[in-house]
Structure formats: structure tokens, C-alpha cells
Amino acid sequence: MKITWFGHSGFRIEIEGAVLLVDPWLDGNPMFPAGRRDEALAGATHVVLTHAHSDHAGDAVAICRALHIPLVGIFDLVTWFTAEYGIEGLGFNKGGTITLNGAKLTMVNATHSSSVAGREGPIYAGSEAGYMLAGEEHTVYISGDTDIMADMAWMGELHKPDIGILCAGGYFTMDMTRAAFAAKKYFDFRTVIPSHYRTFGVLAQDAHLLREALPGVEVIEPQVLTPITIV
Question: pTM of the entire structure?
């Protein structure tokens, strides 16, 4: 398995026969290097969205159109995008599991908000979500944008993820301290990768608090477009 960060909350995950682009916000992402878009998208099989905010979904339609690949996410949002823009979509809902080229993707709860910009203010665009991604003898918990929630207790017990991609930048999501609390209380991770941080000044700029709070867990601060190989 290879996990590659695009900056902010965007990831490329190569697992089984799938190459998933999770929340691939590239255009306007201050962390994503100009001129490396083709490299980031090469061979992608699906775009997976956790919710509709532009710093997650802003490039989804353009990527799906350019690569002729489906958009995957919560039913309401995917249905709207497919009707509005004529792209292929695979919409499902929380508790559902789909198979993407051999990888199992289960949608789980998150607590945040989800909307697209309208002329008169935000327009509801389906509920926010996280995912459990299983394959190659690993399970990855992709938290999406969220705070700590009690649902994490059964999610950890049922799915037993060994890898956590956790939002941890604070302000819009849980911060490093809260992400560490959730990781210790609800999960038994071997590896944790922070996300939704460093992009803007209001967010945490490093993960030292997360690392210090999780002794015995490999906390990997990702570097943009540098693959992390999980064996």
C-alpha cells in the first residue's frame, strides 16, 4: 500500500487494484506544487469525497471529467454532482460497504458540516462522512473532517483499523491534542498520519503534540507527493 499526501486533506491511496484520490484539492491548495498535477493523478481509478466543502471537493468534477473515473461519496452529494455536471458517480451511505477494484470501502460517521457555495449562502450537500478502507491486510480509518465523537468507540472495536489518517489541525476540526485523545481512547493504531494541518496559519503547523501523546505509535508527518509505503 502507498499513501501519498497532496497537502491539506488530499491523499492518493494505492491499495489492491485501486488508486483512490481522497479529497483531492489541488487547484488553489497552497501546499500543492505547481506543475505536478499529472504526476499526482496518474493511474487514478476513483475520486472519494468525505464532504462537499471546496477545500475537499473543489477539484473533484474536473478530475473525474479529465480521467473518466467515477466520483464516490455520500448519496446526496454524488447524486447532485452527477446530475449537475454529467460525471459518473457511485453514491452510497453510512454503514454501506462497496468494493473498489478489490479494496473494501465502508462509510462511517463524522461530525462536521457539508455544503457548497450558493448565491444566497451555503447550500446543504449531504452529510459529512469518514471511511474505513480495507485491503492488503490493513484497515485505514480516514476520519474526514470531524471532532471526537462517541461513535469512534464502536468504529474502533468493529473495524479495528491499524492506520489512522486523522484531521488534527484544529479550528475547523479536532486539534492535535483531541486527535491524540481519540486515538488512545478508541483505537489501536500502529501508524497515524495527521491531515488538515499546515495549509493555513490558523491551523497547527506541526504534529509534535500528536507524536508526544502517542508513544509506541508511528506518527508520520507526511511530505507532499512523497509516498509512504505500508507493508
Answer: 0.97
Q: Which residues of 194-217 are buried (b: 16+ CB within 10 A; e: fewer)?
A: bbbbbbeeebbeebebbbebbeeb
- What tens digit of pLDDT does each residue of 119-159 get? 888 888 789 999 999 999 999 999 999 999 999 999 999 99
d(CA 125, CA 123): 6
Q: What is the pLDDT of residues 147-200, one digit of tens each?
A: 999 999 999 999 999 999 999 999 999 999 999 999 999 999 999 999 999 999
- Give yes or no for a contact between 40 and 15, defined as CB atoms under 8 angstroms apart: no
Are the C-beta atoms of 138 and 1 separated by less than 8 Å? yes
Q: Please, what is the end-to-end C-alpha distance for the chain in angstroms?
A: 7
The CATH class for the domain spanning 2-229 reads alpha beta
Q: How far apart are CA 164 and CA 58, in angstroms?
A: 24
Phi first, then psi: what are they for 5, rounded to 5°?
Answer: -85, 140
Parse the chain into domains and list their residue ranges: 2-229
* 115 Cβ contact list (under 8 Å, min separation 6): 52, 53, 122, 123, 124, 125
